[in-house]
Amino acid sequence: MTTVIDGKDVAASVIETVKSATGALESETGVRAGLAVVIVGDDPASHTYVSAKSRMAKECGFLSVQHTLPEETSQEELAALVAELNADPSIHGILVQLPLPKHLRSEPIIQSILPEKDVDGLHVVNAGKLATGDLEGGLVSCTPAGAMVFVRRTYGDDLSGLNAVVIGRSNLFGKPMSALLLAANATVTTAHSRTKDLAAVCRNADILVAAVGRPEMVKADWVKPGAMVVDVGINRVPAPERGEGRTKLVGDVAFDECAKVAGVITPVPGGVGPMTIAMLMANTIIAACRMAGRKPPKF
Ligand SMILES: Nc1nc(=O)c2c([nH]1)NC[C@@H]1CN(c3ccc(C(=O)N[C@@H](CCC(=O)O)C(=O)O)cc3)C=[N+]21
């Protein structure tokens, strides 16, 4: 039988851990964890995600601050806001929603966030700590951290002897995901658009992670029987069967056919997506505990 992972359920258990750690930190030290989310412009999808993040932060008991800046915000204005949040002792986590409007350069903004407040794990200091295997000291990008919770709940903490294939090599997901799997002793292959015979590479995977941004690209004959398949894709595609002009979300994995071959599989929606938000909360309480000199919870 194939296990379909319920991401909402696992995310809820992460949130419970965050809530109790938040309560304990506040009662023991008087410090309330604070998360600032910054959004520039009026992309509707980004606003939906940001509202979900702010709502969840409140539910966790955090101080939740949202800064909504107009489309025409300058590089200097955005940099000034980040500097202000860096200096604000009530803020432990800073997230600048991406992508930024085209006239703004995101890289200098991300690199100006204090690494200890970089709850997106995108600062080079955090990427470097992960790359050198220092998992205790830094902050890990939320989506790979969430995917890794699924992997640990399936195979445990030690992936010795298991082959993992990650399709995708972005700084946001593919690279940190490969680094996390490697740190857990998996034998890791990072595949991408230039990989030769991708299907054959994937068939070797005990853990197959797809993050390419191509709707339903991974087919059943790419999956090793009994393997774990983690789908990180979020693709909005037309759904004429639901009515004219309607759309739906699909992943990078052809779910129905792959579910027949896989041992464990994550759906889209309801898989990795809810974990991304939960791990943002996890990173915020980790950052707040460290700044207060307390041992952070494990996720
Ligand atoms: N600095 C930054 N950090 C991010 O982490 C970040 C970002 N920018 N920009 C945009 C992407 C996207 N993202 C998602 C979070 C949750 C779901 C999620 O919960 N998805 C639901 C479905 C949501 C729906 O129905 O539209 C699911 O997969 O079940 C999806 C996508 C975080 N992002």
UniProtKB/TrEMBL annotation:
GO CC annotation, single: cytosol
Biological processes, Gene Ontology terms: L-histidine biosynthetic process; methionine biosynthetic process; purine nucleotide biosynthetic process; tetrahydrofolate interconversion
Span of domain Tetrahydrofolate dehydrogenase/cyclohydrolase NAD(P)-binding: 141-290
Family matches, as CDD domains: NAD_bind_m-THF_DH_Cyclohyd (cd01080)
Alphabetically ordered keywords of this record: Amino-acid biosynthesis, Histidine biosynthesis, Hydrolase, Methionine biosynthesis, Multifunctional enzyme, NADP, One-carbon metabolism, Oxidoreductase, Purine biosynthesis
Segments forming domain Tetrahydrofolate dehydrogenase/cyclohydrolase catalytic: 5-120
Functional pathway: One-carbon metabolism; tetrahydrofolate interconversion
Catalytic activity: (6R)-5,10-methenyltetrahydrofolate + H2O = (6R)-10-formyltetrahydrofolate + H(+); (6R)-5,10-methylene-5,6,7,8-tetrahydrofolate + NADP(+) = (6R)-5,10-methenyltetrahydrofolate + NADPH
GO molecular function: methenyltetrahydrofolate cyclohydrolase activity; methylenetetrahydrofolate dehydrogenase (NADP+) activity
InterPro entries associated with the record: Aminoacid_DH-like_N_sf, NAD(P)-bd_dom_sf, THF_DH/CycHdrlase, THF_DH/CycHdrlase_cat_dom, THF_DH/CycHdrlase_CS, THF_DH/CycHdrlase_NAD-bd_dom
Protein residues bound to NADP(+): G168, R169, S170, I234
EC number: 1.5.1.5, 3.5.4.9
PROSITE patterns named among the record's database cross-references: THF_DHG_CYH_2
Keyword Hydrolase: yes
Pfam families given in the database record: THF_DHG_CYH, THF_DHG_CYH_C
Known function: Catalyzes the oxidation of 5,10-methylenetetrahydrofolate to 5,10-methenyltetrahydrofolate and then the hydrolysis of 5,10-methenyltetrahydrofolate to 10-formyltetrahydrofolate.
Family to which this protein belongs: Belongs to the tetrahydrofolate dehydrogenase/cyclohydrolase family.
Entry-linked PANTHER family: C-1-TETRAHYDROFOLATE SYNTHASE, CYTOPLASMIC, C-1-TETRAHYDROFOLATE SYNTHASE, CYTOPLASMIC-RELATED
Stored HAMAP family: THF_DHG_CYH
Record's subunit section: Homodimer.
Protein name (record): Bifunctional protein FolD
Naturally occurring in which organism (per UniProt): Rhizobium meliloti
Name of encoding gene: folD
